[in-house]
Amino acid sequence: MSSLQRWEPFQGLMRAQRDLDRLFEGFFGRPMLGWEEEGVRVPPVDVAEAEKEVIVTAELPGVHQKDLEVEALPESLTLRAEVSREDEKQEEAYHRRERVWGRFERSIPLPAEVITDQVKATFKDGLLEVRLPKTEQAKAATPRRIKID
Fold this sequence. Notes:
Layout: H1 11-28, E1 36-37, E2 40-41, E3 45-49, E4 53-59, E5 68-73, E6 76-83, E7 102-109, E8 120-124, E9 127-133, H2 136-140
Antiparallel strand pairs: 1-2, 3-4, 4-9, 5-6, 6-7, 8-9
């Protein structure tokens, strides 16, 4: 008698997604956003540019504020954190383990130069928001159209 198995309609798609991530990382040297890298989740981020600042928002579920490190350079922002593993209960039989733990580090290039000593960060409910004020030179810079000969 065979056992029942849950139907996973997107199982093939998830496998293709992992293969694509490996290909992307091999070509560009970094994983695609929000996917797993060597068993550690790389947090997905949004980078927005306003007139006077750059705003970076990162999803960091399971990260405690005390374990989070944020470092700003004029042209990049680096996030480091440790996601702690819960005490594994030996009596439980896991059928699936998809949550990952461990240390991660992610550097995010910024679209404009920022003033590092005026950066403000807030962290609430696993969502990190970092506001990085632009330098006066970056604020004044406007895109210039280039004529192609």
